[in-house]
Automatic annotation (TrEMBL):
Keyword Phosphoprotein: yes
Species: Novosphingobium umbonatum
Keyword annotations from UniProtKB, A to Z: Phosphoprotein
GO biological process: phosphorelay signal transduction system
Name of the protein this chain belongs to: Response regulator
Record-linked Pfam families: Response_reg
Domain Response regulatory: 4-120
Location of 4-aspartylphosphate modifications: D53
Top-level taxonomic group: Bacteria
Length: 128
């Protein structure tokens, strides 16, 4: 069965790029452009992985990651943070919020897919 990935990204071009790349690799993808509905979408879609932009309007991706890790239904789902925040301490702060993976924008397809496959393999190892 195809792995399910929720893509939370407010930038239309980035969201489309991530979704197109993931779909081309056989994943079932649910795009979300508004962080305010991200956790609700995650509960209904039940993804195997959440790709989370950190700089979202109205709500921080950091806050969403922290909220997901407090929710018993969402806690086991790994989060790959994709962000323009690439300064000193940013990755550590994002990982402390609960993200299992971190990529700085601009994202290249190779490292992006390697991170996605790596996190999904961890899920498979835990589930299996």
């Amino acid at each position: 069965m195809a792995k399910r990935i929720l893509v939370v990204e407010d930038n239309d071009l980035n969201r489309k790029l991530f979704c197109d790349v993931l779909k081309s690799q056989g994943y079932v993808v649910e795009p979300v452009g508004d962080g305010r509905v991200a956790l609700e979408s995650a509960r209904s879609f039940v993804p195997d992985l959440i790709i989370m932009d950190i700089q979202l309007p109205n709500i921080s991706g950091l806050d969403l990651i922290e909220a997901a890790k407090l929710d018993p239904a969402l806690r086991p789902i790994p989060v790959l943070a994709v962000t323009a925040y690439a300064g000193k301490g940013d990755e550590e702060r994002i990982r402390q919020a609960g993200a299992e993976g971190y990529l700085a924008k601009p994202v290249s397809i190779g490292p992006f897919m390697a991170a996605v496959k790596g996190l999904l393999a961890q899920v498979g190892a835990v589930a299996g």
